[in-house]
Amino acid sequence: xxxxxxxxxxxxxxxxxxxxxxxxxxxxxxxxxxxxxxxxxxxxxxxxxxxxxxxxxxxxxxxxxxxxxxxxxxxxxxxxxxxxxxxxxxxxxxxxxxxxxxxxxxxxxxxxxxxxxxxxxxxxxxxxxxxxxxxxxxxxxxxxxxxxxxxxxxxxxxxxxxxxxxxxxxxxxxxxxxxxxxxxxxxxxxxxxxxxxxxxxxxxxxxxxxxxxxxxxxxxxxxxxxxxxxxxxxxxxxxxxxxxxxxxxxxxxxxxxxxxxxxxxxxxxx
Length: 270
Ligand SMILES: C[S@@+](CC[C@H](N)C(=O)[O-])C[C@H]1O[C@@H](n2cnc3c(N)ncnc32)[C@H](O)[C@@H]1O
Description:
By secondary structure, this protein is of the alpha/beta class. It has a single domain, classed as Vaccinia Virus protein VP39 (Rossmann fold). The chain contains eleven helices and nine strands. Strands 5-4-3-6-7-9-8 form a seven-stranded mixed beta sheet, sandwiched between helices. A hairpin with a 5-residue loop joins strand 8 and strand 9. S-adenosylmethionine binds next to helix 5, strand 4 and helix 9.
């Protein structure tokens, strides 16, 4: 049996009691645990979480895992992936991690510089290179700072894409004002609020789906047979299907329900 001093040296290093007290105080003030701990599990990954970037949610984790199992890319025919509103980079990083090496080149676009920094740090943490052409035998994730509304954005990406994913901001204004302080006081409103004044469907949280549909309608953006997967909020799936039909010309759609019984993803096949 080892001596007590050996037990002491075997103890994993963790926060000391004063750090623990500070963490507890932050939690009691309502700060999300993931920001206090600095990490969030997402499938088999452990991703960095820093305010104000949206903490990846279990619903998003669930459909990303399902999407990863639905598509089987091969290194002999690599797939191009575009993740709009990438935040922490959770969606493309999980796909890059799960799919075979050399089968995936993913781009992730976000308007927030802090999000792009976090996505880049997360790629390093997951050992996924962030430069296109880095190594043909590895999956690559390229974070791109950009605004979905910018008509020049496509020039910075390598279209056409086989898979487009997005978890855009979709909370309607009247719901946003009622969100708990642990969300509203810590997470970027740009990551949550789905209403923009110029949108044709004001107050329904659908502004970003109109922007995404216009983006998808651009010539040569989607490869034939491409898959588009858009996360949606409560009771938005039907409207999002219509927006994709009318503004992106994507008529072949289906809805995925999450394990909590909510319609969570609109999937479209080009
Ligand atoms: C709901 S969060 C999703 C983050 C991440 N994909 C996830 O699932 O956890 C939406 C993200 O959209 C970004 N965003 C908001 N407006 C944008 C715009 N006009 N262009 C690009 N990204 C935008 C926000 O900065 C935020 O990171």
